[in-house]
Each structure stands twice: as structure tokens, then as C-alpha cells.
Amino acid sequence: MPLGNYPLTIRRTADQKWQVRDPIRRKFVALTPEEWVRQQLLAFLMTEKQFPEGLLSVERQLQCGNRFRRFDLLAFDNRHQPMILMECKAPDAPLDDLVWMQAAMNNTAFGAPWLLLCNGATIVLSDLRTNPPTRFWGELPDYHYFSEQFLLCERI
């Protein structure tokens, strides 16, 4: 499922570099191919899938022992528990097992029950509650589906 082409606020700096405004971080950041995917995914999640802006976090890291784990995007449930860890790649990057393993390793610090990989053309969603994890390609459910599923898995 390819992302749309959502309008982004873009500017050129004095030294002729392109930047895009990130609505979550509330600042301009360098416009790289990966950043374009991240911003398009953010716009898609907020406008099409009703993900609340206040429950999304962008590019953070956490120390786990002597290693740092990071994420591109992390969606939280209504109680601010990690729900979906998302890894964004440039449009020409394949979403292969190496990318999935990178996201899964980063998720060890956060414990989200879903992983989402995106390169702009493809979105792969993995349910980590199953063993082995189940991967889905196709239409991404909206925020309410994930938050309901999150509550269901806690009741079990």
C-alpha cells in the first residue's frame, strides 16, 4: 500500500539545504529520502488513520544496558504505553528481513506489540503477539483498531 503525497512544509536554508517541518517535533529537520517517508507516514497516520498527534513520538532513543535503542516513530495507546514501533526507510530501500530484525532489536527497549516498516511504497505490519510474529501487507487499520486490540491482549 503506497503512501499518498501529503503536503509538507518545506524550506531552503541559507546554505541551500532543504528542510521539512516535523509537526511532532515542532521544528524543521533535514529533508532526506528517509525523512520524506517519515513525514508522509506521519501525515497518513494522522489524517487517514486517526492517530492522535499527542500519542506519536519521533526519533527518540533509550539506553538499554550499555546499548542505545532508537525508533523512527512510536505510537502509544491512550495510557501512553508503546503500541506500534515504526521503522522508516528511503523509497529505494527494500523492507527485508534485515530491516525487520533492526526494528525488532530496537523494540527490545520499548516492548511494542506491533512493528511497522515503511519505505513509502510499501507498509509491512507485524503482530509480535504471535509466535512466530505474523506479517501483514495491505490496508493498515486505524488507531481505534490498534487501541482495542491492545486492551484485548492485556486482558488475556
What's the gyration radius in Å? 15 Å
| CATH classification class | Alpha Beta
Number of helices: 3
Strand content is: 25-35%
Strand adjacency order, main sheet: 4-5-6-7-8-9
**What share of residues is helical?**
25-40%
Kindly give the count of domains: 1
- The beta-strand count equals 9
Taken from the alpha-carbon principal axes, the silhouette is globular
- The H-and-E topology, N to C, reads as EEEHEEEHEEEH
Mean pLDDT, all residues: 90
CATH architecture identity: Alpha-Beta Complex
Task: Write a concise keyword list for the protein shown above.
single chain, tt1808, chain A, alpha+beta, three-stranded antiparallel beta sheet, six-stranded mixed beta sheet
Provide a concise account of the structure shown.
With 156 residues, the chain is of the alpha+beta class.
Protein described:
By secondary structure, the protein is an alpha+beta fold. The chain has a single domain, classed as Alpha-Beta Complex (tt1808, chain A), CATH 3.90.1570.30. Helices cover 25% and strands 33% of the residues. It has a six-stranded mixed beta sheet with strand order 4-5-6-7-8-9, sandwiched between helices. Strands 1-2-3 form a three-stranded antiparallel beta sheet, with helices on one face. It starts with 9 loop residues before the first strand and ends with a helix.
